[in-house]
Amino acid sequence: IKPMHILASQGEPFLHPRIFEMLERAVAEGFEVGIVTNGTPFTPERIQRLAGLGLAYLQFSFAGWDADSYESVYVGAKFGRTLANLKAVHQALSGTRTRFAVKAVALGDWQENLRKTKNFLASHGIDSVWTVPANNFGGSVKTGSFHARHGLWSLKDIDHHRLMPCRLFLKAVGVFCDGTVTACGCYDSNAQLRIGNIMEQGLAEIRNGPLYRRILDGFCNGDVKDVPMCGGCDDPFG
Known about the structure:
The protein has about 240 residues and is of the alpha/beta class. It folds into 2 domains: about 1-130, Aldolase class I (TIM Barrel, Alpha-Beta Barrel), CATH 3.20.20; about 135-235, Alpha-Beta Barrel (TIM Barrel), CATH 3.20.20.70. It has helices at about 20-30, 45-50, 65-70, 80-95, 110-125, 165-170, 205, 210-220, and strands spanning about 5, 30-35, 55-60, 100-105, 130-135, 145, 150-155, 175, 180, 195. Strand 2, helix 2 (about 45-50) and strand 3 (about 55-60) form a beta-alpha-beta unit.
């Protein structure tokens, strides 16, 4: 298995004291390594080290066009400092093999807010921007409106959408430090969707096992209401 995605699930990976050691080891082993960050823990020295890692990609989470709009989403972070880090990372990765993109997430009037965010970033020379409305993190966040038809909260207009097999579920699993494997490689930071352990089985065997298949069958049958997290998540609705 060569593609490897280092993902912060409801957390910031660069707060880990050994993050650079882990990334360097993964790259040295021949894996394609990418990472998602909000950029708040960066310093000039860390950015320089980041540029030399040889990552496949870096996704920088950012939303807003001024202090109020940014700090209402990234509570506790400082707009000026993060913007400086964003521009420094963008410049440092230019000319390297690492693909750089901004993931702009917004609340409230999300379409207008994302338009403002994208225009703001373009004014700073950053055009590689992926814009999305905030999701409800597997049903753990009440954001947007309550959609009675599906029984969940979402910023998106999901009333006219049907449940589809989740792209995250089909694309990747999550692996914890103790070997625990979760079916959700994005939001499940507490292993509610545990489907096995790589200390006991291979990933192929786990993905073809009964626990994974039960969730997959739920998506195929259009009913995951009894599946933890999936039953309250708005991602499978487009």
